Amino acid sequence: MSAYDLIVIGGGVNGAGIARDAAQRGLKVVVFEQKDPGAGTSGASSGMIHGGIRYLEKDRDVTRHSCEDSGFIQAMAPHLLFRIPFLFPVTAWTRKAKTLLELAFVLFQTYDQFQPLKRGKRSAKLSRDEAFQLEPGLAPDIVGAVTTDEWAVNVFRLCILTLLDAQAHGAEVQLRHKVERFLKDPNGRVIGVEVRDLKSGFCREVLGRVVFNATGPWAGTLAKQAGAKVPLRPGKGIHLVYDRRFVNYAIIASAVDGREVFLEPYGQETWIGTTDDDYYGDPAEVQAHHDEVAYLIQAVETVFPRIRDYRLVRAFAGVRPTLARYGPSESDLSRAHQVFDHEAEGVPGLMSMGGGKLAAYRFMAEEATDAVVRKLGLDAKCRTHSTFLPGGEETPDAATLAAEAGIERYAAARMIHRHGAVARRIVERIRQNPLERRILCVCEPVTEAEAKHCIEEEWVSTLEDLRRRTHCGAGPCQGARCARRASWLLAAFQGGGEKLAEEHLERFVAARFREQAPVLKYQGLPQLELTRWALRKGDQ
Amino acid sequence: MSVTIIGAGLAGTVAAARLAALGQTVRVIHDRPGVTPMHGGGWLLGLETLARAGVPTGRMDEALALVTQGLADLGLQDGPFDLRDADGVLREVDVAPASHAAAARLPAGSAAVDLLGLGHPFAEMCSGFKVLAVEWPTWPGAFGRSYAAAAAQVEADASHLSALTAALQQALATAPAPGLLLPPVLGLAGVEARRLALEAALGVPVAEALGTIPSTPGLRLWQALAAWRARLAPAVVEVQGRVTAVDLAARTLTIGDAKQPFDALILATGGPIPGGLTSDGAVTEPLLGLRIQPEIACDWQRSVRPDRPYDADLFRAGVPVDAAFRPSRYDGAPVDPRLFAVGDLVAGADAVADRCGSGLAILSGFLAAEAAAAALEAP
Fold this sequence. Notes:
The complex is a heterodimer of chains A (540) and B (379). Chain A is α+β, with helices and mostly antiparallel strands. Chain A has helices at 13-24, 60-76, 97-112, 128-134, 155-168, 219-225, 290-301, 361-375, 398-405, 409-419, 423-432, 448-457, 463-470, 483-493, 498-516, 520-534, and strands at 4-9, 29-33, 81-91, 124-127, 142-153, 172-175, 177-184, 190-197, 203-213, 235-242, 250-254, 260-266, 269-273, 277-278, 312-320, 337-341, 350-355, 439-441, 446-447. Helices cover 36% and strands 22% of the residues of chain A. The model of chain A has no long low-confidence stretch (mean pLDDT 92). By secondary structure, chain B is an alpha/beta fold. The longest helix of chain B has 20 residues, at 358-377. At the A-B interface, helix 14, helix 15 and helix 16 of A face strand 4 and strand 14 of B.
């Protein structure tokens, strides 16, 4: 059995980032992900790669690293990013509203010093009328607003592309592999892991010189198995997803407990995020609940009164691996990250990561990989900030690709958003087989060619995987129109027939239900009934 | 004395037609479409299911005769048929419009037509059919299109159909087939005439597959129902508007700001779609707060088995009724002698599990109308 230099456990942004960095530095790397890239914390984030004005007061470093890294991520994969300008409306609830507006503007201007790092525009103070011109849906009782400029990223694609790049540099990527236990030598040194292939059910032992635990909210329990400690205070956060994009600016609102939440345009959808509550359960089982949904809607209603008229499609939940501190309320916890070398605790060979923000994922991976490289006695510099993610080297013109492929410009633009220059290869597929230009997912839209490309080259083994890669079935119809056809495509690729397709469909429907259930109270109920009707089993 | 019906789907319209036939005057108040326009093209009457649920099915033939006569534009034909829907899935139906029913008579070896440029990969999975891919030259653009949109375009502009006919002729010349199964795109009204013209032009039998959402057959049915109600004027009067409250004791209902009187009321407001039942934690009937069975009192999110999410009480929930389709109390007595509930609103009906809700809609509309007429005549 040949030993790896580095075994990375976890295929979220952190695990993927470390694998990419280490592989680029010439290490022999393997990544084990128990489910699918981004299926845990990464994919449940709000996708913002921002410095966070919120952290400016307490964690200036977090803001700086995040802004710096945001700039690097934009350079690595420009196609995955989209601009989200923020509006902070000040409501006339107190006599000091005008003063509050001035204070907010000062704070936002302080943040402006970081904007050049991430191609951000400077903040501006808007009068009441100006604010309404930009967002007519704002509450009538505002006195004005302050703006700032942020960016968001398609997190699922970020994970996948990072892993694809790691693979291109020689790393092995093993999805649906669960680490069952650590292997130790007689001196207590971690020398590898026993890992179970969840598809076949078989276990095998894998040796590595360093094992890196990048499992996010699972990091604490996993480290414990090796006798090490990663002190986390996991925090649950949920997001609501609305049908259509009905705001062009993210709007900051204050919740009943004073926490900041926001209404955010995301792709073709509008999201509300997020809650932050201590979480004690299994991160794999996290699910949004009615009360949290009500909390977020109540908060946004104060600045966007008609929010209840819009159609809620789903709510998703995730668990932050926040670093532990006893005492402060959840939102006051630092978003700093930390790399743990467990040698200090008498568990050499094992390292972990805790805390952190999506925006600084590359920076965190660099820091972790630096530590790994030092451990191995090597001297290799990080290059992740100066190399493109697959497809990032060029962003093709949507109109040209649309004409070449015979699809609508909008469909081409969405495809380019996900694949960058690799979209050309998908268009090449269409040129060889024009039938593949048919639209599979009408909501997004996704062509059959793109779905097949992802199925063949991006480790898709379930319909949920396909949803994460392409957004197929995640739109307002929740798969009512595409899931059956997508199941046929996937089953055909896997060499199965109608029965396999039906199994895929059933599992997808169950997964979609988990996210639909919390919002059924609102307008989600008819949608569920409709989806059930459309995806009901054939009468054969 | 007049009967008011809230809801103009299949159940509401059948009830209105039956009342008109009985010499009553009827007011139909409707607001927005529910499940009726999602009709797939075929009806499975589900007589056994209805009988099991305690619905007297003896008069289905009479009810169906009324519907067949009223929806003459659809050219309803008696089955049973095995028909494919636009997903290629085989459905069994008892009654189907002529353009769909023709599919059961297609010769062996027929081809399923895959219309490129439309968003759906129809026919790829139609086992037993070979696939004939045809480019529809006047139908550019692939995004957001549906068969229903195509059918509406065909209805509006005849050149689309002549372009399709030419493309089909060309395709048949290179790959001959003894018959063609098309997606439901042949317009919204006068479909049978178009199908026959296409058959004549191509020289082979042609039929339409059933629909999938957004559904062409559903749009056709919706239009045909409206035309049927229009023919029943002046016995049937239509009011567009949303009923926000009903006062049973005062026999008035509220539309907008206006209060209007009624003598008997038939609720044909549907299930969760479009809001005959609503859920705000608990599932309720919003107009009268009628009893719901099975009761779903609170956070039902936790009452659903995660492995069978679509098999929940929620979808069986509805208003329990007596033999005359009057909503009933716990003791079985009617809530009001002149209040009726029909169609998807009725408890025990799960259109997805029963595979179709049309049988109940037709029969309950028919029987409730007779009961309402009788109630008005009673002292």
